[in-house]
Amino acid sequence: MTPKPATFRMPAEWEPHAATWIGWPVNRGDWPGKFAPIPWVYGEIARCITAGEMLRITVPSSSHRRRAARVLGRAGVPEERIDWVIRATDRGWVRDSGPIMARDARGRPVVLGFGFNAWARYADWRQDARVPAAAAKRISVPYVEVRHGGRRVILEGGSIDVNGAGTVLATEECLLDPAVQVRNPGFSAADYEGVFARYLGAAQTIWLGKGIAGDDTHGHVDDLCRFVNPTTLVLALEANAADPNYGPLQENRERLAGARLADGSRPDVVVLPMPSPVRFDGRRLPASYANFYIANAAVLVPTFNDPADRVALGILAELFPDRTVVGIHAVDLVWGLGTIHCLTQQELR
After folding, report:
1. Terminus of the chain with fewer CB atoms < 10 Å: N or C?
2. Is 342 marked active-site?
3. What is the CB-side half-sphere exposure of residue 338 using CA atoms within 13 A?
4. In Å, how far are 107, 197, 266, 275 from 263, measured between CA atoms?
5. Are 312 and 340 within 8 A, CB to CB?
6. Could you tell me which residues are beta bridge partners of residue 241?
7. Active-site residue among 48, 174, 225, 342?
8. Domains, in order of start, for the chain
């Protein structure tokens, strides 16, 4: 259904979840030559998430479910905390293809039916594009198709971050580039801001510039800047002036110096370090501590065998005193060109 003009609000990630969705890794092409350790990384992620909530896991078949269940059992994940969803998918990056949820004017949860086209980059996306509607049916909530100007709106969850109080973060590189990985041809900043106001409850958009090196989404904001409470955000900064990330991240810092939240106040900005460049098979990978996931009981942070790991974990531990901050080894995981936030999606309670 297409809604009449109404108020929707996308809650912040730290607000209570009923569950977290992930897609069990089955596409070996996402980690070519390095797939073997990936299910075990997922097992550790699942163990940490299920300490505070249910985990809904999509798998393409019963045989995949049995193999995944063996991994999770050995990792110490409680069986009663798992809801298996047998459904074919193209990939497991649920942040972008999964059910992005909001609340309607009466506070009831809905799934926002954004379109998905594999980051306007890959050909295999049609099975993933059907996941949000299927998820809405699975959890018995309305499915609201997102439209603007008579068109279905394409949007990935990793391209935005909200504080739940009227402000959204996004990058111009991802959403406004007129030539590269164009999700919604012809959309202007005003078009996106209209969508954000209507469907996310975000009257204020903070536009950053570019994303980080190695990111094949062309600038997802969840690799560089995240809200940690309604008035505070963390921003990844590169200390090495010779690194390709140095200039773009400094520019984002300058933009935030003049930014305003929906209430007119300035956000507090806390700097997160960047790890040293992570490369594999000659390719720079999008390693960033900003790709953390805020679960009910823990904050899961990607780590990279880097001295900056402990610095990033310490910063986030101070910002989330009510949750355990856990480092998840992501050197293998990031070969898939994403880490923890990219593969998780929260379900509203």
Report:
1. N
2. yes
3. 26
4. 21, 14, 9, 34
5. no
6. none
7. 342
8. 17-348 (3.75.10.10)
